[in-house]
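Moderator note: this is an archived Q&A kept for reference. The question asked for a predicted structure of one protein chain; the sequence and the answer are reproduced below.
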Amino acid sequence: MSIFSGIWVPLITPFADGEVDHAALRALVRRYADAGVAGLVALGTTGEPAALDAAEQDAVLATILDEANAAARDAHDAPALPVLVGVSGNHTASMRERIEQLNPLPIAGVLMAAPYYIRPSQAGIVGHFTALADASEKPVVLYDIPYRTGVRMELGTLLTLAAHPRIHAIKDCAGSLDTTLALIRDGRLRVLAGEDMNLFNTLCLGGSGAIAASAHVRPERFVALYRALAAGRLDEGRRIFHALAPLMEALFAEPNPAPVKALLAAQGLIRDELRMPMTRAGDALVARLLALEGDLTAA
């Protein structure tokens, strides 16, 4: 089975007094390893990489990899939790350089969105990803998120890229049922839901899992949801999803990762800090999140 299945958590970057809080980051890695998630994403959108300089990005990745390995050793030499690394940008040559820097590291692969803002043609997208996948020694996971990049990766483009030997999976945020189903039926790319509310239907259609920011909060419930559906226990999976859905929806009521950070802070796991231009979740939303999380605890 491909490692690109199950529930992956796109890790937030905790801050304390404006600096990266590496102790809190280590605790989060251990928390999600203990919850049984399939893998972690470092420096994805949820991790606020645009607010980190190059040295901070490298330090965050080093902490995540080190703690993932430590958790594996403590679990009696279990395999280390796989870590995907987000690589973003719209300058192909610079991204190739970044990938070459990552090649020697013990990572599971790289997660890459289409070039943002410049809105290239579909041929340009194919050329961009082909150049980057050629440079990578690790698997590539495509990240189709047109509302952030400004350009959609058309189905034909995705199917063309699926032929590349190092392009293994896709984080699917395009919101197109037709595209999701076509990719699942094609079978060459593992389809990971990238919109948390699409997790249930993607898995039921035959998708492989999800990269879900909301899994920060109740990771064991998300793992249970995946395992129930993977085992064909549809009624159980539906019950879990219906219980989680109000919280998932609320966690995206304001820009991610502010709501996730607010709830983790309320649980005492991190400080409720973001870097500009991101701002903290509003008080009304925080109260709503706490009530919804409390409902899950009581259930």
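Archived answer notes: The chain has a mean pLDDT of 96.
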